[in-house]
Automatic annotation (TrEMBL):
<dbReference type="GO" id="GO:0030170">
    <property type="term" value="F:pyridoxal phosphate binding"/>
</dbReference>
<dbReference type="InterPro" id="IPR001608">
    <property type="entry name" value="Ala_racemase_N"/>
</dbReference>
<comment type="subunit">
    <text>Monomer.</text>
</comment>
<feature type="modified residue" description="N6-(pyridoxal phosphate)lysine">
    <location>
        <position position="36"/>
    </location>
</feature>
<feature type="domain" description="Alanine racemase N-terminal">
    <location>
        <begin position="7"/>
        <end position="230"/>
    </location>
</feature>
<keyword id="KW-0663">Pyridoxal phosphate</keyword>
<dbReference type="Pfam" id="PF01168">
    <property type="entry name" value="Ala_racemase_N"/>
</dbReference>
<protein>
    <recommendedName>
        <fullName>Pyridoxal phosphate homeostasis protein</fullName>
    </recommendedName>
</protein>
<comment type="similarity">
    <text>Belongs to the pyridoxal phosphate-binding protein YggS/PROSC family.</text>
</comment>
<comment type="function">
    <text>Pyridoxal 5'-phosphate (PLP)-binding protein, which is involved in PLP homeostasis.</text>
</comment>
<dbReference type="InterPro" id="IPR029066">
    <property type="entry name" value="PLP-binding_barrel"/>
</dbReference>
<dbReference type="InterPro" id="IPR011078">
    <property type="entry name" value="PyrdxlP_homeostasis"/>
</dbReference>
Length: 235
Protein backbone atom coordinates (compact mmCIF):
# COMPACT_ATOMS: atom_id res chain seq x y z
CA UNK A 1 0.00 0.00 0.00
CA UNK A 2 1.32 3.48 -0.84
CA UNK A 3 1.71 6.11 1.84
CA UNK A 4 -1.17 8.16 0.49
CA UNK A 5 -3.42 5.10 0.42
CA UNK A 6 -2.45 4.30 3.99
CA UNK A 7 -2.94 7.92 5.09
CA UNK A 8 -6.37 8.04 3.48
CA UNK A 9 -7.36 4.90 5.31
CA UNK A 10 -6.14 6.39 8.60
CA UNK A 11 -8.05 9.63 7.99
CA UNK A 12 -11.23 7.72 7.17
CA UNK A 13 -10.79 5.77 10.39
CA UNK A 14 -10.29 8.98 12.36
CA UNK A 15 -13.44 10.46 10.84
CA UNK A 16 -15.43 7.33 11.64
CA UNK A 17 -14.15 7.26 15.23
CA UNK A 18 -14.92 10.95 15.77
CA UNK A 19 -18.41 10.48 14.35
CA UNK A 20 -19.11 7.41 16.45
CA UNK A 21 -17.92 9.22 19.58
CA UNK A 22 -20.77 11.66 19.22
CA UNK A 23 -23.34 9.18 17.88
CA UNK A 24 -23.19 10.43 14.31
CA UNK A 25 -23.03 8.11 11.33
CA UNK A 26 -19.61 8.26 9.61
CA UNK A 27 -21.40 8.71 6.26
CA UNK A 28 -22.66 12.10 7.49
CA UNK A 29 -19.10 13.43 7.27
CA UNK A 30 -17.62 13.68 3.79
CA UNK A 31 -13.88 13.90 3.17
CA UNK A 32 -12.43 16.60 0.96
CA UNK A 33 -8.80 15.84 0.10
CA UNK A 34 -6.91 19.15 -0.02
CA UNK A 35 -4.32 18.71 -2.74
CA UNK A 36 -2.98 22.27 -3.02
CA UNK A 37 0.74 22.41 -3.87
CA UNK A 38 0.78 18.63 -4.43
CA UNK A 39 1.61 17.10 -7.83
CA UNK A 40 -0.91 15.27 -9.99
CA UNK A 41 0.88 12.01 -9.15
CA UNK A 42 -0.23 12.40 -5.53
CA UNK A 43 -3.81 13.03 -6.62
CA UNK A 44 -3.62 9.95 -8.87
CA UNK A 45 -2.69 7.85 -5.85
CA UNK A 46 -5.62 9.24 -3.89
CA UNK A 47 -7.97 8.53 -6.80
CA UNK A 48 -6.64 4.96 -6.97
CA UNK A 49 -7.48 4.67 -3.26
CA UNK A 50 -11.08 5.68 -3.95
CA UNK A 51 -10.98 9.43 -3.15
CA UNK A 52 -13.13 11.53 -5.50
CA UNK A 53 -13.50 15.02 -3.94
CA UNK A 54 -10.49 17.36 -4.06
CA UNK A 55 -9.93 20.88 -2.74
CA UNK A 56 -7.61 23.44 -4.34
CA UNK A 57 -6.63 26.90 -3.06
CA UNK A 58 -4.95 28.53 -6.03
CA UNK A 59 -7.12 29.13 -9.09
CA UNK A 60 -4.58 28.49 -11.84
CA UNK A 61 -3.05 25.44 -10.15
CA UNK A 62 -6.52 24.02 -9.62
CA UNK A 63 -7.60 24.64 -13.22
CA UNK A 64 -4.40 22.99 -14.51
CA UNK A 65 -5.17 19.89 -12.43
CA UNK A 66 -8.83 19.82 -13.48
CA UNK A 67 -7.71 19.95 -17.13
CA UNK A 68 -5.17 17.21 -16.51
CA UNK A 69 -7.74 14.87 -14.98
CA UNK A 70 -10.34 15.62 -17.68
CA UNK A 71 -8.56 12.80 -19.55
CA UNK A 72 -8.75 10.32 -16.70
CA UNK A 73 -11.20 7.41 -16.71
CA UNK A 74 -12.59 8.55 -13.35
CA UNK A 75 -13.18 12.11 -14.57
CA UNK A 76 -16.96 11.82 -14.45
CA UNK A 77 -16.75 11.05 -10.72
CA UNK A 78 -14.23 13.70 -9.67
CA UNK A 79 -15.58 16.71 -7.80
CA UNK A 80 -13.39 19.82 -7.55
CA UNK A 81 -13.84 22.35 -4.75
CA UNK A 82 -12.27 25.79 -4.76
CA UNK A 83 -11.35 26.59 -1.14
CA UNK A 84 -8.87 29.48 -1.43
CA UNK A 85 -9.32 33.23 -1.23
CA UNK A 86 -11.03 34.43 -4.41
CA UNK A 87 -10.27 37.69 -6.20
CA UNK A 88 -12.73 39.15 -8.66
CA UNK A 89 -10.36 38.86 -11.59
CA UNK A 90 -10.14 35.06 -11.07
CA UNK A 91 -13.84 34.39 -10.59
CA UNK A 92 -14.43 33.40 -14.21
CA UNK A 93 -11.98 30.48 -14.01
CA UNK A 94 -13.69 29.23 -10.85
CA UNK A 95 -17.14 29.57 -12.42
CA UNK A 96 -16.02 27.71 -15.54
CA UNK A 97 -14.12 24.83 -13.97
CA UNK A 98 -15.09 24.05 -10.38
CA UNK A 99 -18.18 22.34 -8.96
CA UNK A 100 -17.98 24.10 -5.58
CA UNK A 101 -16.67 27.37 -4.14
CA UNK A 102 -16.28 27.51 -0.33
CA UNK A 103 -15.06 31.08 0.06
CA UNK A 104 -17.88 33.37 -1.02
CA UNK A 105 -17.88 36.34 1.34
CA UNK A 106 -19.33 39.22 -0.65
CA UNK A 107 -22.19 39.74 -2.99
CA UNK A 108 -20.07 41.15 -5.78
CA UNK A 109 -18.12 37.90 -6.07
CA UNK A 110 -21.29 35.84 -5.89
CA UNK A 111 -22.86 37.88 -8.68
CA UNK A 112 -19.80 37.44 -10.87
CA UNK A 113 -19.75 33.68 -10.25
CA UNK A 114 -23.42 33.43 -11.17
CA UNK A 115 -23.02 35.59 -14.30
CA UNK A 116 -19.92 33.68 -15.38
CA UNK A 117 -21.23 30.15 -14.78
CA UNK A 118 -21.48 28.67 -18.30
CA UNK A 119 -24.93 27.74 -19.60
CA UNK A 120 -25.20 23.98 -19.65
CA UNK A 121 -23.28 23.48 -16.44
CA UNK A 122 -25.23 22.78 -13.24
CA UNK A 123 -25.37 25.67 -10.75
CA UNK A 124 -22.10 26.31 -8.92
CA UNK A 125 -22.42 25.04 -5.33
CA UNK A 126 -21.40 27.81 -2.96
CA UNK A 127 -20.66 28.09 0.73
CA UNK A 128 -20.58 31.39 2.57
CA UNK A 129 -17.34 31.81 4.48
CA UNK A 130 -17.76 33.00 8.07
CA UNK A 131 -14.99 34.77 9.97
CA UNK A 132 -15.80 32.87 13.14
CA UNK A 133 -12.81 33.51 15.37
CA UNK A 134 -10.07 35.42 13.69
CA UNK A 135 -10.86 39.12 13.69
CA UNK A 136 -7.53 39.83 12.01
CA UNK A 137 -8.38 37.85 8.92
CA UNK A 138 -9.91 39.65 5.98
CA UNK A 139 -11.68 36.52 4.74
CA UNK A 140 -15.23 35.71 5.67
CA UNK A 141 -18.16 37.72 6.97
CA UNK A 142 -19.37 38.29 10.51
CA UNK A 143 -22.35 36.17 11.53
CA UNK A 144 -24.45 39.33 11.76
CA UNK A 145 -24.05 39.80 8.00
CA UNK A 146 -25.13 36.27 7.14
CA UNK A 147 -28.92 36.67 6.72
CA UNK A 148 -28.61 39.46 4.15
CA UNK A 149 -25.85 37.80 2.14
CA UNK A 150 -27.62 34.42 2.18
CA UNK A 151 -30.82 35.99 0.90
CA UNK A 152 -29.02 37.76 -1.93
CA UNK A 153 -27.08 34.64 -2.94
CA UNK A 154 -30.16 32.42 -2.81
CA UNK A 155 -31.73 34.69 -5.45
CA UNK A 156 -28.87 34.28 -7.95
CA UNK A 157 -29.84 31.94 -10.81
CA UNK A 158 -26.63 30.02 -11.39
CA UNK A 159 -25.55 29.42 -7.81
CA UNK A 160 -26.82 26.83 -5.33
CA UNK A 161 -26.46 27.99 -1.72
CA UNK A 162 -25.26 24.83 0.01
CA UNK A 163 -24.12 26.06 3.42
CA UNK A 164 -21.26 27.56 5.40
CA UNK A 165 -17.51 27.28 5.69
CA UNK A 166 -15.03 28.46 8.32
CA UNK A 167 -11.30 28.40 9.00
CA UNK A 168 -11.02 29.15 12.73
CA UNK A 169 -7.83 30.61 14.13
CA UNK A 170 -5.45 27.77 15.09
CA UNK A 171 -6.22 26.54 18.60
CA UNK A 172 -4.65 23.54 20.30
CA UNK A 173 -7.25 23.01 23.04
CA UNK A 174 -10.07 20.64 22.08
CA UNK A 175 -12.75 22.33 24.20
CA UNK A 176 -11.96 25.72 22.70
CA UNK A 177 -12.01 24.25 19.19
CA UNK A 178 -15.39 22.76 20.01
CA UNK A 179 -16.79 26.06 21.30
CA UNK A 180 -15.91 27.87 18.07
CA UNK A 181 -17.20 25.09 15.81
CA UNK A 182 -20.43 24.94 17.84
CA UNK A 183 -21.11 28.59 17.04
CA UNK A 184 -20.77 27.66 13.38
CA UNK A 185 -23.18 24.79 13.77
CA UNK A 186 -25.77 27.05 15.44
CA UNK A 187 -25.54 29.42 12.48
CA UNK A 188 -25.77 26.49 10.06
CA UNK A 189 -28.91 25.10 11.70
CA UNK A 190 -30.53 28.55 11.58
CA UNK A 191 -29.60 28.87 7.89
CA UNK A 192 -31.14 25.49 7.14
CA UNK A 193 -34.45 26.54 8.68
CA UNK A 194 -34.73 29.09 5.93
CA UNK A 195 -32.85 27.31 3.12
CA UNK A 196 -33.43 23.56 3.47
CA UNK A 197 -31.16 22.90 0.49
CA UNK A 198 -28.22 24.15 2.59
CA UNK A 199 -26.85 20.79 3.66
CA UNK A 200 -23.11 21.41 3.98
CA UNK A 201 -21.06 22.67 6.92
CA UNK A 202 -17.42 22.75 5.77
CA UNK A 203 -15.12 22.82 8.78
CA UNK A 204 -12.30 20.78 10.23
CA UNK A 205 -8.72 20.37 9.02
CA UNK A 206 -5.90 18.01 9.96
CA UNK A 207 -5.42 19.44 13.46
CA UNK A 208 -9.02 20.02 14.49
CA UNK A 209 -11.14 17.50 12.60
CA UNK A 210 -12.38 15.62 15.68
CA UNK A 211 -13.81 18.76 17.32
CA UNK A 212 -15.33 19.89 14.02
CA UNK A 213 -17.09 16.55 13.61
CA UNK A 214 -18.32 16.61 17.22
CA UNK A 215 -19.80 20.06 16.56
CA UNK A 216 -21.63 18.97 13.38
CA UNK A 217 -19.27 19.32 10.42
CA UNK A 218 -20.53 17.56 7.29
CA UNK A 219 -17.33 18.05 5.26
CA UNK A 220 -13.80 18.03 6.61
CA UNK A 221 -11.01 19.50 4.47
CA UNK A 222 -7.88 17.46 5.03
CA UNK A 223 -4.50 18.09 3.41
CA UNK A 224 -1.48 17.30 5.57
CA UNK A 225 -2.80 14.07 7.08
CA UNK A 226 -3.32 12.67 3.56
CA UNK A 227 -0.54 14.14 1.44
CA UNK A 228 2.08 15.07 4.05
CA UNK A 229 3.48 18.49 4.87
CA UNK A 230 3.38 21.08 2.13
CA UNK A 231 6.49 22.69 0.69
CA UNK A 232 5.79 26.30 -0.28
CA UNK A 233 9.39 27.09 -1.22
CA UNK A 234 8.85 25.94 -4.81
CA UNK A 235 5.76 28.11 -5.32
C1 LIG B 1 -4.76 24.03 3.32
C2 LIG B 1 -6.18 24.07 3.71
C3 LIG B 1 -6.79 22.95 4.32
C4 LIG B 1 -6.03 21.70 4.70
O1 LIG B 1 -5.26 21.94 5.84
P1 LIG B 1 -4.43 20.74 6.56
O2 LIG B 1 -4.11 21.32 7.89
O3 LIG B 1 -3.25 20.47 5.72
O4 LIG B 1 -5.34 19.58 6.65
C5 LIG B 1 -8.14 23.02 4.60
N1 LIG B 1 -8.87 24.11 4.30
C6 LIG B 1 -8.32 25.20 3.72
C7 LIG B 1 -9.19 26.37 3.40
C8 LIG B 1 -6.97 25.21 3.42
O5 LIG B 1 -6.45 26.31 2.86
Amino acid sequence: MSTIQQNLQDVRNRIAAAAQNCARAPEQVALLAVSKTKPVAAIEEAIAAGQRAFGENYVQEGVDKIRHFAESPQNGELVWHFIGPLQSNKSRLVAEHFAWCHTVDRLRIAQRLSDQRPAGMPPLNVLIQINISDEQSKSGIALAELPALAEAIAALPNLALRGLMAIPAPEADYQRQLAVFSRMNDAFLALRQRYPQADTLSMGMTDDMAAAIAAGSTLVRIGTAIFGARDYSQA
